[in-house]
Every structure is written in C-alpha cells, then in structure tokens.
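Lecture 7 notes: from sequence to structure.

We start with a single chain of 340 residues. Read the sequence below before looking at the structure.
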Amino acid sequence: MHNKVSIKDIARIANVSIATVSNVINGKGRVSPKTVSKVNKIIQDMHFVPSASARSLKDMNSHLIAVVVPFLEKGMLQDNPFYWELVRGVESGARHHEVQVILLGIDENEDFSFVKQRHLDGLIVVGVFEHTLAFQKLLDLGIPCVFLDSHLSNPDFHQIDLDDEAGGYLGTRHLIGLGHKVIGVLTGKLEEGGVNYYRHQGYLRALRESGIEAGPELVFEEAPSIRGGYQVAQRLGSYKPKISAIFAFSDVSAIGLIRGLHDIGLSVPADLSVVGFDDINYSAYMIPSLTTIRQDIVSKGQIAVKMLLDQINGTGLTDKKSVKIPVSLSVRQSSIVNMI
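Now the structure, written as tokens:
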C-alpha cells in the first residue's frame, strides 16, 4: 500500500506544490523551516520513499558506484573477508548520500561494458597495475575513479594506499625481536609497484638492519588465499633450511597456513610463529589468535567513497589527491619467542 503514495499525494496533503516537496526531499531551494517540517512529517506518516529512478533522470546520475577488483582468481573475491570489510566501509560512507554500491571482480580482458550498461557514476578500483591494459581501459572510460592499494606513480590520480613498506618492516622486526633468524614470507605475486612488492621491501630492510641473510628459498609466491596458505604449509614439514617463522602478507593466507600446518602435525606457535597482514575480523577469534599488521579497512573504504563522491559532485576537488594510511602491529598468540 505504501508504494502507491506519490509525490503528488504528499504535495496535495501538505497543500504545497510538487516542486516544493521535491526541494524538501533533495534539500534544495528556498523552503521555510515550517514547511520543511510539515512536509517531512507527512512523508514519514505516509511512509513515502522517493523514486530512485526519477531522481536519477532529474540529476542525470544513477547513484550507483562499483568497487572493482582486477585480476582476482575465480572464487577469491567471495572467499576473502578483506573485500567484505572494504565494501562495508564504502557502503557506510555512501549511505547518507543515497548511493548504492556493487562489488565486481574483473579480468585482463574485461571490456568494461558493464559501466555503461549499469550507468555507473564512478569506480573504486582495488589493486590495479598502471602498466596493464585494464588500467588503460579504466582511464579511457572518462568517469571518476579512486584507486586503492595501487601505488600509482602519477600524482594526478585520486588514490589511497597503505604504508605497505612499513607494514612489512614491522611484522619482520617483531619476529626478529622474538629471536627468529630464518623467516619465510608468503607473499602472493611479487610484481614491482604492487602492495606485496612494498611489503617485501620492508621485510628485506628489517633483515638487512639485523644482519640476517635473505634468500629466494624463503619466499613463497602463492596466491593470497586460504588455499594458497594451506598449500605452502604442505611443503614446510621437510623444508630446508628449517624455518621458524612465516610472515604471510594477508590474513587469509595466514589462516590457510595455520590450518595446513596443523594437518601435517606442526603447531603454531610452538613449531612455527605466524604473522599475518590486514587484521580482518576473524584474526582475533582464531585459535591461536593471529598476530597481524593492522590496517583500518572500513575507514579506507569510507575515505575512498568520499573522495569519489567529491569528484562526481564536483566538490572538494582541491583536497589532497593522494592519501597514505598508517599501519600498526597487533600482537596475539600466533607468535612467540624462539627458544631454538
């Protein structure tokens, strides 16, 4: 029944024009506080919901944006809670602007036809490399974009990055401080300019400062997924040199790693200490709870959507285009002093 109420009904009951009701709904025009209060009360009493399609026709925007994750293996988008938390942050930032959010995974051959088909107002793109064809296609769209975790070299792009190098350094320094000297890293793909590259650079810096030798045999470039972590664990039982700690560059990899170690009879942290990266919600509730590098994922999503909406609406464009978010270390049960 409530869906049959129209803006005409609200105007008739309030004894004002349709334009006045529209101005009240959109917060525009000159309307007296008394009239605003009266119209809003009728809207509330009648359970009236403004038509999103009508609003889109009026301001030429769809009020729809997408969080786009390129080059992610099939199934990983749904399996990684990092993206759920990121979208939660984006949605919370977009809610008061009546903007809806969708999450999409794409591959290198994507033609981005979905942008026109869905009349998207803008994109938040996660982890794209600027030398790729997909990146050039994104630029060719000519719509507002914010790039997350991409470390783009052009300062004219709107982007938000973590201090990934500091995160790699903090996690490695923590393990060195516990007495570990043979520290493996579960990196995901190491490609220059990506987040894993910078985290690995932080790892190498911490080793150099402590006079500890790094070696390619300590680097595991498995996919940043639960399965990737699990597969690495299967190779560690008889691995030489004997690794006493692993720094996984994502929490989901660490989760898979810990389960895989359990299945081959190795205990965390008694046999190996493990450190993750991201501090997703599950990290504190695992057994053992996961020591990890913390980033504020929800806040990152909120900053990204504000930056995107500023572009869409033509506001705040003088603000800083590049934002670097700090990280911190959350010490929990998965890392202990190495007694060997």
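The mean pLDDT is 88. Keep this in mind for problem set 3.
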